[in-house]
Specification:
Layout: H1 3-26, H2 31-50, H3 56-64, H4 66-82
Helix pairs in contact: 1-2, 2-3, 2-4
Length: 85
């Protein structure tokens, strides 16, 4: 994976987080949702760390790690609705 591909991936991941933040603002979500997003951002950072050496095994590990991002967002939404007044 070349240098520009890692930067492009970081851009796409960042735009995904931005879209989710805007969605949360539109739906008036609170701290639970944004906590899930923070966990997701940490997982995206971990994925960027994994692909730093551009080793195919580590890149595949980062790809397999994506379901944890979905789980973090899901838990944030679930907690948001569970704690809603």
């Amino acid at each position: 994976m070349t240098y520009w591909r890692r930067r492009f991936l970081a851009l796409v991941l960042g735009l995904s987080l931005l879209a989710l933040v805007l969605l949360g603002r539109t739906l008036h979500f609170g701290l639970c949702y944004y906590g899930g997003l923070a966990a997701g951002a940490a997982l995206f950072s971990w994925q960027q760390w994994l692909i730093r050496a551009r080793d195919y095994t580590d890149c595949f590990r980062a790809f397999e790690n994506n379901h944890y991002f979905g789980i973090a967002i899901f838990i944030g939404i679930l907690l948001e609705y569970a704690t809603a007044p």
